[in-house]
Amino acid sequence: MNKVELLNRITTNIRQSLELQTVLNTAVTEVRDFLKSDRVKIYKFDEDGNGQVVAESIDGDRLPSLMGLHFPASDIPPQTRELFIKAKVRSIVNLDKQEMILSEPDRLLSTPAGELTVEEVRQESLSNLLQRPVDPCHVEYLTLMGVKSTMVVPLVNEDRLWGLLISHHRRAKNISNSKLQIIQIIAEQLEMAIAQANLFQTIQQKAQSEALINEISNLLHSPLENEKILPEVLAKVVLALQGTAGLLWMTDRAAQSTISCYQYGSLPNLSQSDWSQLQNLATPKTKVNNL
């Protein structure tokens, strides 16, 4: 497959599908075939910085599958993440000799930051950063995985590191500058797909929230009695929040007493004193304003 065909295929897939997983699965397969590498994966970060392999393509059984595996945030320290955002592409041709290659001038590859802080990475010039050797821990990590050459391209969304597009090979492998440029374009297309999927998800969540509000509003304005309305309202709220249980405590502000209490799902077995404490928290207190 030539470069134009690869770009057209992935670009068409991104434009036609709103399902991000479909786009990611296609991308890793096409990139692996294009690079003729043993494994290509997409590694996604969660809000706490932990990672998970969310898409993967392997050439036969040359390398073990990592699909679905979770990795702690400490595997990729903050300064290394900052380097990915700053330098864009890293390619290790030969892990034993630590031979590196560069992509296009404005998207230079980076090496691990070692003992540098995040702020030092931000202030350091790329030329100096590129002179740093590969971090020994990273060398050991790749060696244990049976990897001799690797390419890593960051996937950025809203100026934050969303994930990594990674290629692994069991032997030393040179990736030409022209191929790295194609991979960078593919990464940019993937970033567009990620942004598109996030926007679509936001629109869906907004529509679901509006539908829920309308349902609850209709229930509250229905002629039914509270004993029938409120349990159904509570159930809808708990399910919308993906909870397992809920408690609705109604109080009389004037009398400072409980009017009624509704529950949904399985609540913990609380003692009478625990329920009394909850009642005290739920009952409004009289406030005195100092004038």
3D architecture notes:
The protein has 291 residues and is of the alpha+beta class. The chain has helices at residues 3-16, 20-35, 78-87, 118-123, 126-129, 136-144, 177-220, 226-240, 272-282; strands at residues 39-45, 51-58, 70-71, 90-94, 99-101, 149-157, 160-169, 245-252, 257-265. It folds into 2 domains: 3-201, GAF domain (Beta-Lactamase); 222-282, no CATH class. Helix content is 44%, strand content 21%. A 7-stranded antiparallel β-sheet has the order 3-2-1-7-6-4-5, with helices on both faces. A hairpin with a 4-residue loop joins strand 8 and strand 9 (257-265).
In short, what is this structure?
The chain is an alpha+beta fold. The chain has helices at 3-16, 20-35, 78-87, 118-123, 126-129, 136-144, 177-220, 226-240, 272-282, and strands at residues 39-45, 51-58, 70-71, 90-94, 99-101, 149-157, 160-169, 245-252, 257-265. It is built from nine helices and nine strands.
Largest sheet: 7 strands, antiparallel
What's the CATH superfamily of the largest domain, by name? GAF domain
SSE run: HHEEEHEEHHHEEHHEEH
What's the total helix number? Answer: 9
List the domain count as a whole number: 2
What's the CATH C level of the largest domain?
A: Alpha Beta
Uncertain spans, ≥5 residues at pLDDT below 50? 102-116, 125-129, 286-291
Number of strands: 9
User: Which strands sit side by side, in order, in the main sheet?
Assistant: 3-2-1-7-6-4-5
The average pLDDT is 77
Tell me roughly what share of residues is in helical segments: 40-55%
Q: Which class of secondary structure composition applies to the elements?
A: alpha+beta
Rg to the nearest angstrom? Answer: 27 Å
In whole angstroms, how far apart are the ends?
Answer: 80 Å
- Name the CATH architecture of the largest domain: 2-Layer Sandwich
